[in-house]
Write a structure and sequence with these properties.
This protein has helices at residues 27-42, 56-59, 89-102, 125-133, 207-210, 294-302, and strands spanning 3-4, 17-22, 46-50, 68-70, 82-87, 105-110, 120-121, 138-142, 145-150, 156-162, 165-170, 177-183, 186-193, 195-199, 223-228, 238-240, 246-250, 257-261, 265-269, 274-279, 284-288. By secondary structure, the protein is of the alpha/beta class. Strands 1, 2, 3, 4, 5, 6, 7, 8 and 21 form a 9-stranded mixed beta sheet that branches. It has a 6-stranded antiparallel beta sheet with strand order 10-9-20-17-12-13, with no helix packed on it. Strand 3, helix 2 and strand 4 form a beta-alpha-beta unit.
Length: 324
Amino acid sequence: MSAHQPQPTDHDAPHREVLLVPHTGRHSNLEAAASAAVLLSDAGIRVRVLAPEDPTPLNEHPILKDFAQYPHSIQAAAGCELVLVLGGDGTFLRAADLAYQQDLPVLGINLGHVGFLAEWESDSLEEAIRRVVACDYRVTDRMTLDVRVINEAGETTGSAWALNEVSVENLNRRGVLDATLEIDGRPVSSFGCDGVLVSTPTGSTAYAFSAGGPVLWPSLDAILVVPNNAHALFAKPLVVSPKSQVAIESNSDTSPAIAIMDGFRDLHMPPGSRVEVVRGRQPVRWVRLDDSTFTDRLVRKFRLPVVGWRGPTTTPKEAPCSPN
């Protein structure tokens, strides 16, 4: 994971612009988005707002209706310096898709429940905006996955990417996915299952965690493989090298399957096709505002009990011997 400091904006440079991606499902979220838009605008930063499928909440808001709206498309963040997300993890993943397309940093402020992907909570929104205005933040790289589907004839029928995970599932929810797991060109095990998850360290706290996978620290370069409810003796999670290729093959006589990236991008898999997953060529650029550790985030988000912790102890240095 690499990091760099954003460069302050020169007064003679082109205008600064931010794409604001709010979750518009609650009144409190709209008010937070309006506050962020006004703070940025007052600092001389142009604001464009990502419009949801139903833009009515934005159009009816007395403040947000005056800001330019953009649909979810590859051009939504073009020309911006940063994507600012106000919402939960689902909103963040959709915003990260836009940031990824333009190779821009993405900053999340949690307005949802767990909000594991967000950098700060809603009560720190004003300070976060101040940091953005002052370019007082750093950017780190988060590992991604590149995914492609290959049919039985060996033809690539689709490709995509994922920040969290790719979930390979049976389209027929009443049946199981008959799959063979392959690592680096060699078969590992065949089983019937609800699906197979291939996750990044970032995604290890999401769907993969719910399916029984371990938590991986985001500074780790690795790929996590988690069979989901597999009917097999050997169906434990695997942590493999970031240089490995993970493949899941579906049987030719089974029903069609689907590969779902980050919960909302999908690729269809005809019977007998395979999904190949490797480390992504392009990372997601992740805004950090402080130096809090992933351990602290894990404890806070999952509300883990740490009562009784005393912390590391140090052995006092022995005093030098005094002459008699």
